[in-house]
């Protein structure tokens, strides 16, 4: 029954399940928002935001190009529609869902890579795709984690790496190495740890140089041209990414010569595009400043143990014993089983065989011969040519044997003649060309060992680092899917099915239902929904124009009882309101709230020749003690927030309180609040689990809610 379900589960279901996760309210980790949407939204819409330290110019430890290649594709069209057409589509819903939709589209590259690689391995892709569709990992596929982007890039890299070799004379892929150079660059600009996952691909390219070499000289030449082509791809792509980061962080600036004053002035992005359309003005441009190497900055930062200690240090075994099983469940145990089985049985046999043969010949000669033989033959489960026939070699050998037996001596003579002709062609090839005319497909066994190599390389090197989080292992999803697909394919070919497989299948389904529901629905599930509610309900959006349009020529008449859905400045960037408003948001015992989903722009207005501001303060208290909440709420009753309060709770600079004051307190239901004057419960959001809370049993844990209180105060 389990095999039947895996077979009939169509690819469309994998898409439907993943598309559904776009709407999941679960909050997995703050980095999903603060290293991507929060940055782009603050740039594009000029929203009030908390900029992560990595994107501060003084640190510049992450490339700004990566968020713009993901969330930027979603937000820039919204900004264009708002500016050109005047249609406002910017709200919390679109800002949350559109980046997830973009990531969903990008994640289809993982499925495409798996289908292509499975075909080259000579196995069915249904098992691997079904495994992914049933995994709770699909939650990450629609989230803007840098780890998700890294996983997508690795899948594309594996797909390109298993293409026909560019060293083959038979329809070789001439731009394969160049493409891998570009992919590698984008990968390390996403996360420098991409190098760890890419290392086995480098080994594969090295082995291809051996396979398609007819002598040591041709090997060196092939190796040189492979390295050169990869270097060109890396150089070109790095140039554009470094240039983007340098302009973004302000270390490199473009200046235009002012002919009237004979001096240079800085130009903005709009002026830059206008100058691009005027080639005659290019001669008046000048670059000043330095280049920003965000990848190098990130690498150097992580080399310092003191820096890593600020983010938390973990035991070296955490990835292997905790994070890997947490992400992949029982499949992690299966991979450990096959790995130890290889170490205990297969590897000793291979070493013993090499040692026995070394008595007659050198070990180096035996290794090279064995390596080239494996590269040319395949592994018995694929045909070595990637044509999808799982038993191709076996059938071919069986057919040749029957034909030879039938023809007798004639068949043997024909075979000898063919060998002579082949030797003559090989001799000519050695003299004329470097590339040798072998099968241009990457052998199926090489692809299989490549996936195993990525798994081992990723787990081993990431386990060396002192800071370890489960999502760091997310790029392993593609090689692990290929590994699982091969095991499922092997199991289907057995006449007698293993009972262990059925047990693992049931455990796998239960595991993913539980973990997927927890992180997709319950885990901090009220935070995003509270932002959706506050964005549509808060008084910050109830900004009115003046009743009498004669008070200011730029203001029009609008009923003050009808609030605007969104602050819309006039052509002078001014919004007219009837009173000064300060809105405070206090988040207590929750994950960090993404500020940009409140869609807050700096608002100012002029009344009776006096300029006023619509002030917004966001206080993120995190898991602080309850005494700190009392201290803050009591301070908000005063006219001005004391400096010690600002320093204690501040990520940003807070404005003084004046005029009408409205405070929203967002807190889990299990928190026992101190007495707060004028606090009214206005919203209760179910399905909010806070793992940092104290709870007696599982029932209490899953009955938690996120509560929103409103505290109003009018200054006289």
TrEMBL record:
Residues 379-389 have a biased composition (Gly residues). Residues 377-422 are annotated as: Disordered. It comes from the Eukaryota. It is found in: Endoplasmic reticulum membrane. Residues 397-417 have a biased composition (Basic and acidic residues). GO terms for molecular function: alpha-1,2-mannosyltransferase activity. GO terms for cellular component: endoplasmic reticulum membrane. Pathway: Glycolipid biosynthesis; glycosylphosphatidylinositol-anchor biosynthesis. It holds the Pfam family Glyco_transf_22. The chain crosses the membrane at residues 97-115, 136-160, 180-207, 219-244, 323-344, 447-466, 472-488, 500-522. Signal peptide: none annotated. It is a multi-pass membrane protein. Keywords: Endoplasmic reticulum, Glycosyltransferase, GPI-anchor biosynthesis, Membrane, Transferase, Transmembrane, Transmembrane helix. InterPro entries: GPI_mannosylTrfase (IPR005599). Its EC number is 2.4.1.-. It is an enzyme of class 2 (transferase). Coiled coil: none annotated. GO terms for biological process: GPI anchor biosynthetic process. PANTHER family: GLYCOSYLTRANSFERASE (PTHR22760), GPI MANNOSYLTRANSFERASE 4 (PTHR22760:SF3). Belongs to the glycosyltransferase 22 family. PIGZ subfamily. This is Mannosyltransferase. It comes from Anaeramoeba flamelloides.
């Amino acid at each position: 029954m389990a095999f039947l379900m895996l077979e009939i589960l169509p690819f469309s279901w994998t898409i439907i399940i993943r598309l559904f996760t776009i709407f999941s309210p679960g909050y997995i980790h703050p980095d999903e928002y603060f290293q991507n949407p929060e940055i782009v939204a603050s740039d594009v819409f000029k929203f009030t935001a908390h900029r992560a330290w990595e994107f501060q110019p003084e640190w510049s430890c992450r490339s700004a190009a990566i968020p713009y290649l993901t969330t930027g594709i979603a937000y820039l069209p919204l900004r264009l529609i708002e500016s050109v057409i005047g249609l406002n589509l910017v709200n919390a819903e679109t800002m949350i869902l559109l980046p997830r939709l973009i990531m969903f589209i990008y994640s289809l590259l993982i499925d495409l890579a798996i289908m292509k690689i499975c075909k080259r391995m000579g196995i069915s892709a249904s098992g691997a795709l079904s495994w992914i569709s049933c995994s709770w990992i699909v939650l990450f596929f629609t989230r803007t984690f840098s780890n998700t982007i890294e996983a997508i890039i690795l899948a594309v890299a594996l797909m390109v790496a298993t293409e026909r070799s560019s060293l083959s004379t038979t329809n070789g892929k001439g731009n394969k190495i160049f493409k891998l150079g570009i992919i590698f660059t984008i990968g390390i600009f996403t996360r420098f740890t991409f190098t760890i996952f890419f290392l086995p691909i480098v080994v594969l390219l090295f082995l291809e140089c051996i396979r398609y070499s007819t002598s040591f000289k041709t090997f060196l030449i092939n190796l040189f041209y492979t390295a050169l082509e990869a270097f060109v791809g890396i150089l070109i792509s790095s140039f554009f990414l470094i240039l983007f980061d340098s302009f973004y962080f302000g270390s490199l600036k473009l200046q235009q010569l002012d002919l009237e004053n004979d001096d240079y002035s800085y130009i903005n992005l709009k002026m830059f595009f206008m100058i691009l359309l005027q080639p005659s003005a290019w001669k008046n441009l000048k670059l000043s400043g330095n280049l920003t190497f965000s990848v190098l900055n990130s690498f150097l930062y992580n080399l310092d143990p003191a820096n890593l200690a600020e983010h938390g240090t973990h035991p070296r075994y955490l990835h292997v014993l905790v994070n890997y099983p947490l992400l992949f469940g029982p499949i992690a145990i299966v991979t450990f089983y096959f790995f130890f089985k290889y170490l205990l049985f297969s590897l000793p046999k291979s070493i013993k065989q090499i040692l026995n043969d070394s008595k007659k010949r050198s070990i180096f000669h035996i290794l090279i011969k064995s390596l080239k033989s494996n590269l040319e033959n395949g592994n018995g489960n694929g045909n070595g040519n990637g044509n999808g026939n799982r038993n191709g070699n076996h059938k071919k050998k069986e057919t040749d044997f029957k034909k030879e037996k039938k023809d007798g001596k004639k068949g043997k003579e024909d075979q000898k003649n063919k060998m002579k002709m082949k030797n003559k062609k090989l001799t000519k090839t050695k003299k004329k060309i470097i590339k040798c005319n072998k099968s241009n497909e990457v052998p199926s066994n090489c692809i299989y060992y490549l996936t195993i190599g990525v798994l081992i390389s990723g787990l081993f090197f990431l386990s060396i680092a002192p800071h370890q989080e489960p999502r760091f292992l997310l790029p392993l999803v593609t090689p692990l899917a290929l590994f699982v697909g091969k095991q499922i394919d092997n199991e289907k070919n057995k006449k007698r099915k293993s009972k262990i497989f059925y047990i693992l299948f049931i455990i796998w389904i239960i595991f993913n239902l539980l973990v997927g529901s927890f992180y997709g629905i319950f885990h901090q599930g009220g935070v995003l929904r509270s932002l959706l509610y506050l964005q549509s309900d808060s008084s910050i959006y109830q900004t009115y124009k003046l009743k009498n349009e004669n008070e200011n020529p730029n203001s029009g008449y609008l009923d003050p009882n009808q609030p605007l859905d969104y602050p819309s400045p006039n052509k002078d960037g001014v919004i007219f309101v009837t009173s000064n408003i300060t809105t405070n948001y206090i988040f207590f015992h929750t994950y960090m709230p993404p500020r940009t989903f409140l869609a807050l722009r700096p608002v100012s207005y002029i009344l009776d020749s006096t300029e006023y501001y619509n002030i917004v303060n966001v206080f993120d208290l995190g898991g602080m003690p309850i005494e700190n909440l009392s201290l803050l709420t009591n301070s908000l009753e005063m006219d001005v927030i004391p400096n010690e309060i600002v320093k204690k709770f501040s990520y940003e600079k807070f404005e003084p309180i004046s005029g009408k004051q409205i405070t929203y307190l967002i807190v889990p239901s299990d928190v026992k609040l101190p007495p707060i004057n004028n606090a009214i419960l206005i919203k209760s959001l179910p399905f909010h689990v806070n793992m940092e809370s104290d709870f007696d049993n599982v029932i209490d844990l899953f009955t938690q809610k996120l509560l929103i209180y409103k505290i109003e105060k009018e200054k006289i």
